[in-house]
Amino acid sequence: MNTSPQELLITHTYKEIDAIIAASNRIILGKEHAIRLALACLFARGHLLIEDLPGVGKTTLSHVLASSLGLGFQRIQFTSDLLPADILGVSIYSRETGAFSFHPGPIFAQVILADEINRATPRTQSALLEAMEEQQVTIEGETRLLPEPFFVIATQNPSHQVGTFPLPESQLDRFMMRIELGYPDSGAERELLMGSDRRELLKHIRPVIKPERLIEIQHLAGKIHASSALLDYLQDLLEYSRKSNEFQNGLSPRAGLAILHAAKSWALMEGHAEVLPEDIQSILPGVIGHRLHSLENLNTSSKGLANHLIKQVPIP
Amino acid sequence: MQTESARSVDTLSLCWLTAGITLAILPHGLRMPVWLLPLTLALVLWRLGGGLKNWPLPDGKYWSLRILQLLIMIGGGMGVYISFHTLVGREAGSALLVLLAGFKILETRHERDFYIAAFLGFFVIVTNFFVSESITTAIYMLLTLLVMFTALITFNDHNQSLNSLTRIKTAGVLLLQAMPVMLVLFLLFPRINGPLWGMPQDAHAGLMGIDDVMEPGSISRLIHSNEVAFRVEFDGTPPENPKLYWRGPVLWYNDGRKWSRERVIGIEPAPLETAGTPVNYTITLEPTSQRWLFMLEMADKAPADSYFVNDYQLLAQEPVNKRIRYELSSYPEYALGKSNAYEIQRALQLPDNFHIRTIALAQSWANEETDAASIVNRALRMFNEQNFYYSLTPPLLTGDNVDDFLFDTRQGFCEHYAGAFVVLMRAAGIPARVIAGYQGISFNPVGNYYIVYQRDAHAWAEVWLDGRGWVRIDPTSAVAPERVQQGIAGALPEAIIDVPAVFGQIQLSRNMWQNLRNTWDAVNNQWNQWVISYGPDRQALLLKKFGMKEINLQLLAVILVIIAAIVFAVITVWLLRQYPPARDPARQLYDYFCRKLARIGIRRMPHEGPLDFAARVARKQGLLADIVNEITSLYVSVRYGSQVTKLAALKKKINAFQPEKILRIKTARS
Question: Which of A9, B23, B261, B556 could form a cystine bridge with B212, CB 3.0-4.6 A?
């Protein structure tokens, strides 16, 4: 069979991505699926929300991703007294030059870890979210572009913990995916306990690819072919979420786009030249978990919801 | 891959097409010159042989065969010309069409030929109605149409995904869907006067029936005919059988051998004296291609487009070339008391040098008897008392047919008796004439109407008696009174083959047969009235039933368009609801593939993606892994990668995929 240049490119990229995953796997043990989803989100130019208990490795995951991709990394610890300027930056009058000079905030980095985002006030949250959405910040009438690639990983404590401002639905929708890390299994836990300090390991990570290459991969992911048959399937899924009366609200068109883009990235990571229904099924828990709420309060976990949806909608 | 326009005709479609066209030309072929049908069928067979057995066909490869084809074509055309002395007209045109259909089939190679041949077939179907408009023809042609539809469906079923039964069913559904439109068009389309199809004038040539020339055998030959001459609907009860004389041509002239009509111009019919109550009835006359109309003796008013001539013959303006209906009112009690001198003189005409013995006998009666009435009675008495027999198969008369009959053979049918009687009367000086027509009726209880068959044909006489005028005398009744009392079936039961021998034995089956035949005739009658003869009058009648009194063509056209639009809209909505959007061909193939796997117990779940399913199959039946992966990757490229060019490969692989066989072979090997 003759292979097109596109297919060659896909095969090549697929191998590169495998190397990234392998590198990350050495540090974050037993979380390959989460890493894959996070990468899919990154390749699809989406932003990631990790919701889990403290201490399960959220920060480490962000670090690993940034390091293995050679990206600049900033961590912002969200607290209840954090102000928008603390994120975006401020203009300060300089006596020497006699003019205001802009001191960029931590948001001007390629990978940002917004830790415990739901502990900040809604005003600060929305400053971050607006920047995420528009890939630029406007401070004092001046618009500044954010670096590229730009990837936000926000972590969130489960909303039942005290002292939190839970993100409203509309803000949640801006995250392409929400994943849970969960506790490691016993084997991984044992290895974790026996092995050296993760932070030490992090320092030794060498980037697998350069940031420019990441942008190329993002472009390639966007070009993965989605046939009309595949779009039919996607539409059937959206339709079901809207018409079945099993959910509080159906999936929004933005959710549909998020599913498609994430599925394209996933297909690339699987080495497919085209998006398959399986690709959609694989990323579905990540994409719909924070968007759909079951009315019957059953299967409230992301996985349960996604599995239910998948089982109900036959592949056309 | 062949392009669409050059798509060649597959053998199966060819078989259906030839079947349809053969069915369409068969009825034509049976009426045509004997050589035509075998020649056409040979052409069809040649093409079939080419398709099925790879016989050489006349095309680019075999130029000698092309020349042969050309020669046959010229020969066939000349044959038609020689047989019909023309190439145009109903008969010759049909013959040519049949021949051309055969040639078109022979040269059918590609899509375009196929459609032309199919449309030619449809045209041949239509031309069959030029010859016959009966129900049987209609049903037969409907079946032919079904076969033609199936041929078209087969040809368009590119990957032959349907079986024959489904194709026939689809054709049937198509026909049924066309029915409402057909009915609306038939009922409401503005009609012109005339039969369903404009029949050429020669359409009913060679029909059997009463002729205006009578000689021995001319009426008795009709006795075996169970064909309908006309149907009668009476208002109320019909008169008794002995009064049912249906008057046809009046025959005046005797040339010594036969009797014939004599046109007299310029003499008005004498006024009729009537008594009693009239009988009202409607006659539906089958085409005769003659001008005379039959009526119960004696009607006083001619229906529209017809008139009485001097001898009370009812003549239509035009020869009756189509079935016509007319209403009449007759007085069984009548007198035709007046005549004129010329008529009286013509009614004494006798040929010279003929009937010598008869004339001598009549003249001796004239000398012995004093008045005309006793001469008439004497003649009737002779028939009654002497050895005269009423026979369907009288001995052949070689000499003077009246003399020989009266003095030697003495066996005859009504034409013998009527003829001889009139000669006797004229010889005795009594003006007399022969009347031809029908006598009697048969009731059809199913349709509640009466039928006069050709076998009811009869001939009788009218004599001029001073003071009484023209009086009907039926000499046959003197020999065989039962002929008039009970009709022909009563008089000659053994001659009337009313019921086939198989049914004739038992009364029950006999009744069943008669019932069946009555029903068939009733259905035919309705068909004639409402389908064949559905003209402006019937249409107006029908519309009146729906409350539309005044019909004008414009209104009719508007109604027609509205109804057609509604019908099409309903059909469209129904179709859209009935069928989900057509499935992707790759998906259809993949479903087929999944069905094959389901046979060995591995069923794809509706939500299971192709790769997941392939992986599961590999887990369950490792032996199938390779082929299933291969098919799956092809399917994925076609359906999700939009690489349509791989569809053919996918089809081939899936069609060849036999999981049971692979498992069997591989298991056996290991």
Answer: B261
> What is the rounded distance in angstroms from the CA atom of residue A209 to the CA atom of residue A277?
29
Average pLDDT of every residue of chain B = 84
Answer for the pair B282, B325: CB distance below 8 angstroms, yes or no: yes
Q: ipTM surpassing 0.90, yes or no? A: no
Residue A258: the pLDDT is: 93
- Of A50, A46, A74, A47, residue with least CA distance to A61: A50
> Kind and range of the H or E element at B82?
helix B63-84
- The proportion of chain A whose per-residue pLDDT surpasses 70, expressed as a percent, equals 95
Nearest to B65 by CA among B106, B112, B100, B21: B106
| B640·A315 Cβ contact <8 A | no
Residue A275 to residue B606, Cβ atoms within 8 A: no
How many angstroms separate the CA atoms of B360 and B522, rounded? 52
Please check whether residue A256 is in contact with residue A219, taking contact to mean a CB–CB distance below 8 angstroms: no
Check if B640 contacts A (Cβ < 8 Å).
Answer: yes
pLDDT of residue B3: 41
Instruction: Give the DSSP letter string of A246-288.
Output: -BSS---HHHHHHHHHHHHHHHHHHT-SB--HHHHHHHHHHHH
Bridge partner list, A284: none
Size of interface A-B (CB pairs under 8 A): 48
User: Quick one: which of A274, A240, A275, A270 has its CA closest to A255?
Assistant: A240
* pLDDT tens column, B260-285: 888 777 777 878 888 888 899 999 99
Alpha carbon distance A69, B261 (integer Å): 119
A191-195, A244-248, B24-28, B333-337, range with greatest mean pLDDT: B24-28
Residue of chain A with shortest Cα separation from B614: A278
Phi then psi for A76, rounded to 5 degrees? Answer: -115, 120
Cα gap B465→B459, rounded to integer Å:
20
Q: How confident is the model at residue B166 (pLDDT cuts 50, 70, 90)?
A: confident
For B584, name the nearest residue in chain A, comparing CA atoms only: A229
**Angstroms from A168 CA to nearest CA on chain B:** 32
Question: Cβ contacts of residue B184 below 8 Å, gap of 6+?
Answer: B560, B563, B564, B567
Shortest CA gap A186–chain B (Å): 28
Instruction: Look up residue B498 and give its two tokens.
Output: 């009313």
Task: Work out the average pLDDT over A48-66.
Answer: 83
Over the stretch B506-564, which tens digit does the pLDDT of each residue have?
Answer: 667 777 888 888 888 888 888 887 887 777 777 777 777 777 666 666 777 788 888 88
The average confidence (pLDDT) of chain A is 84
pLDDT at B553: 67
For each of the domains in chain A, give its residue range(s) and CATH number, in order of start.
Answer: 5-82+108-214 (3.40.50.300), 225-312 (1.10.8.80)
Residue range B186-201, pLDDT digits in tens: 887 777 665 544 554 4
Q: Show which residues of B are catalytic.
A: 414, 458, 474
Is A266 buried (19+), middle (13-18) or exposed (0-12) by CB count in 10 A?
A: buried
The sheet that has B259-260: what strands, in order across it? B213-214, B259-260, B253-254
* Cα–Cα distance for residue pair B247/B296, rounded to 1 Å: 6
Phi/psi at B460 (5° precision)? -145, -170
- Residue from B640, B642, B643, B646 whose CB has the most chain A CBs within 10 Å, to mutate: B640
> Within an 8 Å CB–CB cutoff, is residue B607 touching chain A?
yes
Kindly state whether A274 is in contact with chain B, defined as any CB-CB distance less than 8 angstroms: yes
B606, closest residue in chain A (CA to CA) = A314
Q: CA dist B267 to A48, B101, B324, Å?
A: 117, 56, 27
Q: Which residues between 547 and 586 in chain B have a beta carbon less than 8 angstroms from any beta carbon of chain A?
A: 584
Q: What is the pLDDT of residue A238?
A: 92
pLDDT for B2: 39
Higher pLDDT, B211 or B125: B125
